[in-house]
Amino acid sequence: MEKKKSRGCLLFVTGFVVLIFILLAVAMIPQIFPDRAGRKDSFGEALPQPTPWMVSEQDGEPVTSICLRVEESYPDLDESQELSVLEGYTVMLTAAGFEVKVRDCETELDVQVVGEAVGTNYTSSGSPHYASTRYSGIVVLHQADLVKELEVVAEGPAPETISADRFLTPEDAPFDEGALWFVYKSIEGLWGPDSILPAFTINEETELPFSFVAEEYLNEMGVASIPVLIRGTRNPEAKIREESARMLGRLHRDAEVVVPALTALLADPHQGEGPHQGECLERNSNGNCYPYFDVRSRVVQALGAYKEEAFPAVPALLQLLEEAAAEQSETEMELLVEGLEEISGESFEDPADWQAWWVDTQGS
Question: In this structure, are 241 and 104 located in the same domain?
Answer without folding.
Answer: no
